[in-house]
Amino acid sequence: MKTVLQILRLGRRVIAGPDRWNQGDYALDESGFSVPDDGDRAVSFCSVGVIFHAEKGQHVNNRVRRLLCVNELEKTISLRGTATPNLTRFNDNSTHPMVIALWDETIERLEAAQ
After folding, report:
1. Cβ distance 70 to 48 under 8 Å?
2. How many Å separate Cα 60 from the centre of its chain?
3. DSSP letter string, 71-83
4. What is the DSSP string of the chain?
5. pLDDT tens-digit map of 7-62
6. How far apart are CA 68 and CA 34, in angstroms?
7. According to the model, what pLDDT value does residue 39 have?
8. So what's the pLDDT on residue 57?
9. What integer best gives the mean pLDDT of the chain?
10. Which of 1, 102, 104, 105 is the most buried (most CB within 10 A)?
11. CA-based R_g, the chain, Å
12. Residue range 70-82: average pLDDT?
């Protein structure tokens, strides 16, 4: 069973390249069409979709861990002083470098807490 930190590390690696990240949809295929985030045809993901993708095949408490991952990213947004920390809104209104910085900051915060 993957931990929240493991899921975030994996998700961050998946969306590291701008071609593997998207806005406005959980997951897209090579043609830019919406596909299930845990399917084999998905090639790019938003910040929420990649969490679901990273949890692919994990059935025990996966919904809880997914929510915890989203919560940790939103906590980082909140720590930055944003009045309404919403991961989807942040992803869809930010640049790829801004999104990656959020993931890095969240991972570093969680690693420091261990």
Report:
1. yes
2. 19
3. HHHHHHHHHTT-S
4. ---HHHHHHHHHHHTSSGGGB-SSSSEE-TTS-B--TTSTT--EE-HHHHHHHHTTT--SSHHHHHHHHHHHHHHHHHHTT-SS--HHHHHHTS-HHHHHHHHHHHHHHHHHH-
5. 999 999 999 999 999 999 999 999 999 999 888 899 999 999 999 888 776 555 57
6. 25
7. 81
8. 60
9. 92
10. 102
11. 13
12. 95
Token pair, residue 65, equals 């861990």
Total residue count of the chain as it appears in this document: 114
**Six-digit token string for 75:** 């906590």
Q: Where are the domains of the chain?
A: 4-113
Looking at this protein, which amino acid is placed at residue 28?
A: L
Reported in sequence order, the residue ranges of 5-80 that DSSP labels E, i.e. its strands, are 27-28, 44-45
Amino acid at residue number 6:
Q
Residue 25: both structure tokens together: 């949809």
Task: Give which of 49, 58, 55 is closest to 99, Cα–Cα.
Answer: 49
**Encoded amino acid at 68, one letter:** L
Q: In this model, does residue 1 exceed pLDDT 80? A: no
Task: Quote the pTM value.
Answer: 0.93
